[in-house]
Structure formats: structure tokens, C-alpha cells
Design brief:
- The protein has 538 residues and is α/β, with parallel strands linked by helices.
- Helices cover 28% and strands 27% of the residues.
- It contains 16 helices and 29 strands.
- The strands form eight sheets. It has a seven-stranded mixed β-sheet with strand order 25-24-21-26-28-27-29, with helices on both faces. Strands 16-15-17-20-19-18 form a six-stranded mixed β-sheet, with helices on both faces. Strands 7-8-12-10 form a four-stranded antiparallel β-sheet.
- A hairpin with a 2-residue loop joins β22 and β23.
Length: 538
């Protein structure tokens, strides 16, 4: 492939390197110029264009990406159509994403033109989550590079999604006078929620004395009717012969491993009785925040059996965020006073559900005011300080509709990749001094400044250390306030997803604020806009 400027007269058959607009016509990047295109550009006074001229063995970016994607085993995966040299790959089931680093590296080392990016090894995913993406960097690549990638991916899987298998689980909780009953009740609730993510259920709980004999008897009694036994000790495991590992052996089982290089989560016990997993959970697993127990549980629920080598290999990346409620938390540095929540308005989406109407929902007018302007004016009226507006699709039109408003605009050129890219852009723009981000969707005209002030008041009342979520009749809605502690996880989001997974697993309190129907009223279709009294605009 030869890349660079050429006289327009020599450009027929070449591929445009950059989009060009002439009058009412627009030629997108990657478009192969026809004789008619050349004539149209000439009439517009264009004399030179920047193009890619393909060699005989070159493949255009979309064909190359599609061919590489087709070489990946499709089990439990969904592939997008190739666009701009990219194919996105999504999970079709909830399960465990397992990556083969060596295979991924081999593909990426064929040539810089061919890239394959994926989630980290052994990442839990939900159905619909984006797990990998193939991107061809230039407009075309030699076919031999594509063939090399195809051969590698057919010879050895680069990744897979192992579906979670629903399990019937039993909880054995030991009791000591020092352990409060409400702590045990919370442990049951948190474990049940963890299991539900895989379709599993906590069907039995047995509370027994903190002794080897009592725990062993409970294991023996529960073993026949369950697929998984999890033991929470009232006292932490301090030795391979402590109560929980000793009880597993006494019940006829084998202790595979005691301890793991993941913090929080060090004090885990992994055992089995025949094929039945028996896990001694660390105390940190009483919190919903991610810890080493999650890593082992996810593997078991996906049909894996981690051995000692697997567990001892978890040290790199094993230092997780601290759980503040641990009895002996790591020493913390003194943090400066927490700043207030600032507002992020997401207005970059493509409005794909508007269909062939030709209108953009955010430009639809209500009483002569574009919907996006109504939303942003509500944000400003809440007096929360800085308001950030993320724009992307039809950026110039959206910004024109907000002309004169004192907001900070953030451009998201990757808006087509989905909501996550806009969320990342908005949160990043807030800087480090804020205490949280109040994230608004721009297509919810029922949300008022009073609603926002109500949510911010609750956030402030929780010391700015809780997720605050709008609900309608108890059902989740929008907006949501994400505390600063969640920002690192937000920046890892990819694809067309929001922050729901982060909210569920961040380990912070989640406070629901009832806002009525406004919390779930988003206008995504022409019919909804018209029914709400809006007027569609181009």
C-alpha cells in the first residue's frame, strides 16, 4: 500500500484517508473513489487528495478485520460487523473470560497493522459485555498478515468465555460470642448476591459452634444435597491445621491450599470432598467489594478447579483496593478533605433508536427549547459547580444548541464504541479535586434541578462515600452519583455499558433516592418524543 497525497486526476480506485465533504455529499474515510466521485470532487475545486493506493495483495481494513474475527471459535461469543477496520467481540453468556496471553501476543507481533485487545485473564463477564476487539490500524494490510493471524487463531484459541454453571450452595457459619448476629445475617445476604450473578443459589445456611467437630458434622450432613459448600469462620484461619482446614479433613476431604497472594483475601482455604468444592472464605468476603474469594469462586462456578500453582500465581495484580471495614485494614495515608460532586451530562450518543426519522432526539424541541438544552439548564440550576457536557455524534449541532451556557465541553471521538467511552471522558474531565460525579443522560427531560439537589444532599449526608442512585417505584433509574473511589473502575469500562457492574461490586453503600417517573423516562424514539409533547428537528 502506498499512502499520501496524489493529484485528483490519478485518484480513481484509491481509498480516501480522510472524510471529505463537498456541498451535500460526504465521502467517508475508507471510501474507494469511483470515477463519479472524482468528477464530483473536481467540480468542487478539489485538486489533490490524500489516499491509500492498494497493492495487488492488499485487503481493505474491514475485510481484513472480518476475516481475522472469523478465525476465532464463536462459542459463547458475538461479533459485530466490521466498521472502520474494527470488529468488537461480546460475550453471549455470563461467565469467566479466559485469555491465552501467548496466543494474543503472537497475533499482535505479526505486524503493528494488526491488533487484538481483550480483557484480562479470568475476568468475570455478563452476557453482552465486550470482551475483545480486533482493529486494523491502516486502511489496508497485506493479505499475508491476515493469513498469519487466521492460522494462529485456528491453531490455538486466544480466548474463550466459560459459562457459569448454576450451583446449589450451602453456607456453614461458625459462631463465637464476639461475632454479632447482624454480621452473620449480612454475610448470608452478601454471599447470596454473589452467587446470583452466576445463576447460583444459596439454598441452605447452617450456623454451628466454632469447632472442628461441629464444622465437620455440618459438612458431612450438607454434602449430599449441594454442589458447593462455603464456610465462614467466626475467627480467621491462622494455620493449615486450624478449625476449618482440620474440619474438611475430618469430614473425609482434602485441603488443596491454605492462603493466597491476594489482598484482601489472603486467608482463603480451598478443599474438596471427592468432586465437591469446600471453600473456607476469608473474612473480607463478608463485604461485597471485590477480593480474592471472588477470583476463586468465579473459577469454580465456571467449571475450573484452581490448583496450588494457579493460586500462587495470582500475586501480580493481587493487591486490590482496601476494604475499609476490615478489622485490621492496611495503614492509610491521610487524605485531604473530599470535594463535592460535579455533574457530567452524556450527550454524545448516536440516537440509533430514532430510526429513519432523520432527527436527533437531543435536538427535539419542547416549548421551543432543544431537549439537550433543557437537561443542561437543569444541571446548571442545581448549583453544583462545574458542569461537563460530553459530545460526539453531531457534535457541532449539539454544541450550537447549548450556545451561551457556562459549561465545559468534552469531545468524545469514540462515541460510536458505546456509552462507556463517554462516561470515561466525562469522569476524566472532572479532575482529582471532586468527591464524585453526578452522571446525567441528556435524553431525560423529566429530571429537574430539584431532583439533582435532592441527590447531592443525600450524597453529602453520606460523607460523599456512597453511590446515590435515582429510582422510580423502587426500580433502578438515572441519574446516579458515583463517588471518587469508583473512578478507576470507570476508566476501565469499554463498549456499550454503563456503571451498573461497578455499582454492584464497588463495596460502597448504595442509597436509592425516589424521584418518581422522571427517573425512568428517557425519550429514545420519535413516538416517545411526540407523545411527550416534543417536536422533532433534523
Amino acid at each position: 500500500m502506498k499512502f499520501g497525497p496524489v493529484p485528483l486526476a490519478n485518484a480513481e480506485g484509491a481509498v480516501l484517508a480522510h472524510a471529505m465533504k463537498t456541498g451535500a455529499s460526504r465521502l467517508p474515510k475508507g471510501h474507494r473513489l469511483s470515477q463519479a466521485d472524482v468528477a464530483t470532487l473536481a467540480e468542487a475545486g478539489v485538486e489533490e487528495v490524500i489516499v491509500a493506493r492498494l497493492d495487488a495483495d492488499d485487503l481493505l481494513e474491514n475485510e481484513a478485520a472480518a476475516r481475522i474475527a472469523a478465525a476465532i471459535a464463536p462459542d459463547h461469543l458475538r461479533f459485530s460487523q466490521a466498521a472502520t477496520g474494527r470488529v468488537n467481540i461480546h460475550a453471549t453468556v455470563s461467565g469467566l473470560f479466559v485469555a491465552n496471553r501467548a496466543a494474543v501476543d503472537r497475533v499482535n507481533r505479526i505486524d503493528p497493522a494488526v491488533t487484538l485487545a481483550c480483557l484480562g485473564d479470568h475476568t468475570a463477564v455478563a452476557a453482552g459485555d465486550m470482551v475483545a476487539t480486533i482493529k486494523i490500524i491502516p486502511l489496508a494490510v497485506p493479505e499475508r498478515f491476515v493469513e498469519q493471524a487466521e492460522n494462529m487463531l485456528r491453531a490455538e484459541a486466544a480466548f474463550e468465555v466459560k459459562p457459569f454453571v448454576a450451583q446449589r450452595a450451602a453456607l456453614i457459619a461458625t459462631e463465637l460470642p464476639s461475632l454479632k448476629r447482624q454480621v452473620m445475617d449480612k454475610t448470608h445476604m452478601v454471599l447470596a448476591a454473589r452467587l446470583l450473578r452466576s445463576g447460583s443459589h444459596l439454598v441452605t445456611e447452617r450456623r454451628v459452634a466454632h469447632s472442628e467437630a461441629a464444622v465437620a458434622a455440618a459438612i458431612a450432613d450438607l454434602k449430599p444435597a449441594h454442589d458447593l459448600i462455603i464456610i465462614f469462620g467466626a475467627s480467621a484461619v491462622s494455620d493449615p491445621d486450624d478449625v476449618i482446614p482440620a474440619a474438611i479433613r475430618r469430614a473425609g476431604g482434602v485441603v488443596e491450599h491454605v492462603g493466597m497472594p491476594v489482598d484482601p483475601g489472603n486467608l482463603l482455604v480451598l478443599g474438596r470432598i471427592a468432586e465437591l468444592p469446600v471453600v473456607g472464605a476469608p473474612g473480607c468476603a463478608r463485604s461485597p467489594k471485590e477480593n480474592g474469594f471472588d477470583w476463586i469462586l468465579d473459577r469454580l462456578l465456571a467449571g475450573e478447579w484452581p490448583n496450588s500453582e494457579d493460586i500462587t500465581g495470582l500475586g501480580v495484580g493481587g493487591l486490590l483496593n482496601e476494604i475499609p471495614t476490615r478489622p485490621q485494614p492496611r495503614e492509610q495515608t491521610v487524605s485531604p478533605a473530599r470535594g463535592p460532586a460535579r455533574i457530567v451530562v452524556l450527550a454524545a450518543g448516536r440516537a440509533s433508536r430514532m430510526g429513519a426519522s432523520g432527527g436527533h432526539k437531543l435536538l427535539a424541541e419542547f416549548d421551543g427549547v432543544p431537549m439537550v438544552r433543557r437537561t443542561v439548564e437543569a444541571a446548571l440550576a442545581a448549583d453544583a459547580g462545574k458542569v461537563v457536557v460530553v459530545t460526539g455524534y453531531r457534535e457541532a449541532d449539539i454544541r450550537a444548541a447549548l450556545a451561551g451556557l457556562p459549561v465545559e465541553f468534552v469531545s468524545n471521538p469514540d462515541y460510536a464504541a458505546g456509552m462507556a467511552s463517554s462516561l470515561v471522558a466525562g469522569v476524566t474531565a472532572l479532575g482529582t479535586e471532586v468527591g464524585g460525579a453526578l452522571v446525567m443522560l441528556a435524553d431525560m427531560p423529566g429530571i429537574t434541578a430539584d431532583h439533582l439537589r435532592k441527590m447531592i444532599e443525600v450524597f453529602d449526608g453520606e460523607g460523599r462515600q456512597a453511590v446515590v442512585r435515582a429510582v422510580s417505584g423502587g426500580q433502578r433509574g438515572n441519574p446516579v452519583i458515583l463517588p471518587k473511589e469508583t473512578f478507576a473502575a470507570v476508566r476501565q469500562l469499554v463498549g456499550d455499558v454503563g456503571a451498573r457492574h461497578i455499582v454492584e461490586r464497588c463495596g460502597l453503600p448504595v442509597i436509592d433516592v425516589e424521584l418518581g417517573e422522571a427517573a425512568r423516562l428517557d425519550l429514545d424514539t420519535p413516538e416517545a418524543i411526540i407523545a411527550a409533547g416534543g417536536v422533532l428537528k433534523e
